[in-house]
């Protein structure tokens, strides 16, 4: 009975937020089309709406820990769920994401992503995309702020592991900015590949900064240790244990 109720409320939550995303995207489109600030404010309001409905309908709350970056820096983040995107966007002042190039051509969403200064990446061409991003930064097209990269390149389910790619170091070394590892347990409550939402407290934690000038091998080792270790600790705090086959225990 409890599971059936969770499924019902989860479906309602997904539908309500899909409708609201469409409505807000269209209503505020003229503002977003002519103003990067308008695009950011609209998206921030949407994250607040999701925060409210998540608590009301499916029992998900969220918490931000650590020092939230206010300056230009590179956020090297664990990515388990669409929820961790929303939490980061809601928390930092000028977020911009490295994203799949296909999203740029999505009606309405693509325009908002472009106005926010997100960086489209073609799959299999990450090196070329980094060079293009640097050209965008130097030309002034990309608004200064907090650039978010997912070092594993995709969403990773809790308890599973994917190797960390070198792209985060390439950005770190070329941008000349400090890096902030970011951990999360959001995938426990907003899982990948299902509409079912699970009640609990989703956490995004900004870990200690990595100063500029760290060599590649040391940087990647530290990022992986901080992001994976921090995420595992947050998941354990929420009662998650991973079995050897990657399933939840």
UniProtKB/TrEMBL annotation:
Q: Which GO terms describe its biological process?
A: phosphatidic acid biosynthetic process
The protein's UniProt keywords, in alphabetical order, are: Acyltransferase, Membrane, Transferase, Transmembrane, Transmembrane helix
Pathway membership: Lipid metabolism
Top-level taxon:
Bacteria
Q: Which residues form the Phospholipid/glycerol acyltransferase domain?
A: 73-187
Q: Name one GO molecular function term.
A: 1-acylglycerol-3-phosphate O-acyltransferase activity
UniProt keyword Transferase, yes or no: yes
Q: Which residues cross the membrane?
A: 7-33
**Tagged with keyword GTP-binding:** no
Concerning PANTHER family, the annotation shows:
1-ACYL-SN-GLYCEROL-3-PHOSPHATE ACYLTRANSFERASE (PTHR10434)
Protein's name according to its UniProt entry: 1-acyl-sn-glycerol-3-phosphate acyltransferase
């Amino acid at each position: 009975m409890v599971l059936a109720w969770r499924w019902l409320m989860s479906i309602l939550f997904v539908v309500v937020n899909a409708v609201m995303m469409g409505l807000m995207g269209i209503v505020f489109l003229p503002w977003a089309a002519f103003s990067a600030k308008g695009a950011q404010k609209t998206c921030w309001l949407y994250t607040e709406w999701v925060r409210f409905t998540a608590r009301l309908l499916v029992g998900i709350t969220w918490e931000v820990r650590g020092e939230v970056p206010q300056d230009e820096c590179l956020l090297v983040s664990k990515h388990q769920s669409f929820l961790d995107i929303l939490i980061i966007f809601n928390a930092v002042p000028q977020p911009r994401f490295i994203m799949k190039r296909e999203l740029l051509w999505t009606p309405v969403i693509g325009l908002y992503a472009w106005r926010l200064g997100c960086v489209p990446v073609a799959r299999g061409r990450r090196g070329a995309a980094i060079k293009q991003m640097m050209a965008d930064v130097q030309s002034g097209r990309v608004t200064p702020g907090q650039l978010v990269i997912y070092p594993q390149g995709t969403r990773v389910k809790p308890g599973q592991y994917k190797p960390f790619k070198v792209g985060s170091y390439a950005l770190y070394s070329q941008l000349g900015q400090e890096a902030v590892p970011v951990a999360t347990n959001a995938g426990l409550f907003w899982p990948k590949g299902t509409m079912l939402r699970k009640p609990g407290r989703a956490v995004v934690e900004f870990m200690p900064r990595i100063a500029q000038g760290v060599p590649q091998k040391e940087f990647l080792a530290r990022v992986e240790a901080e992001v994976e270790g921090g995420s595992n600790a947050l998941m354990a705090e929420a009662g998650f244990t991973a079995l050897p086959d990657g399933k939840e225990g």
